[in-house]
């Protein structure tokens, strides 16, 4: 959920609650004021009635001014001096019950205490309350809608610099020399945020250039002495005057230097992949590439007496730099051959959605979920540096591919899907 949507929902919920509370309070206040006005008028009628009794000392009329007055005998104990109540009475003009507010008190008429009730119709009062309430509801709804609309528009304009900064951050590419360009908004907090992002972008570009230079230098400078060591060691091995012990020691040095060279190449390749130094993608038919690679490894496959099966070789096409596609295929095929047993099988299954390379082999020593970790090796051979599957995983992760490993019934299967 976007921040603007979240704040608008909170504001709408809070405003609705406040407006409902304010509406109910306003309704109650209006009702109290109108009832107070009706009761004051009833009290005025009471005084007029009492004044009338002082003059005439009797009562014969059923109506007094606009209000209905009813005089009846006292049948029970006398209650409070006066009190107000609501009642319903049938209208003389319409056959329906209408609401009245009545004032009940006691007066002496002709020397006899009587119960006097003065009533005033509340029809007009209720209609007035309804009109006021309806007007108030309409005004509050319009106010709420207008405020919500205005708040959404104003918030959109206020937060526009933030979303503009977010968009530029998403499109920022470390591999380009162009620095991060951000506007200077009027809001101080957004300006501070943009300044932090600018400094962060400069630092990231500087670190990227430094790391890129390091990997390039390491690729050239470290490989040269390693190649020289290997060449000199090969010359020593071929020397006729070496003893058997010296030959074994030099052979160990040679194997260690070769392993160091492969380790250096693997780590440099991982660094380049993580830093997105491979920027040119091509449409690669991974199925064709795997089939060709299996053909290139025919001698090794024949040596281990492996059987290769191609099932449904529908092209599986991906977008990858050619060098990384070659590395991905090499590592998959080498892994399938290296960890296979003699007279085993290799099976390639391809569809437009995924490609799977399976091989028979021994049971895993380590947990399957750790298979793609760096320097995680199943075998103990000196040729393995434990980076092959880690490189495959890194390539898939950086180029929006999924790789899954499953094992069962003596088969080890690696599937790549888009």
Automatic annotation (TrEMBL):
Keywords for the protein's UniProt record, in alphabetical order: Kinase, Membrane, Phosphoprotein, Transferase, Transmembrane, Transmembrane helix
Q: What EC numbers are recorded for this enzyme?
A: 2.7.13.3
List the GO molecular function terms. phosphorelay sensor kinase activity
Superkingdom of origin organism:
Bacteria
InterPro entries tied to this protein = HATPase_C_sf (IPR036890), HATPase_dom (IPR003594), His_kinase_dom (IPR005467), HisK_dim/P_dom (IPR003661), HisK_dim/P_sf (IPR036097), TCS_sensor_his_kinase (IPR050428)
Spell out the GO cellular component terms annotated for this protein, sorted alphabetically and separated by semicolons. plasma membrane
Is Hydrolase among this UniProt entry's keywords? Answer: no
Which PROSITE patterns does this chain map to? HIS_KIN
UniProt key word Transmembrane: yes
Q: What's this protein's name? A: histidine kinase
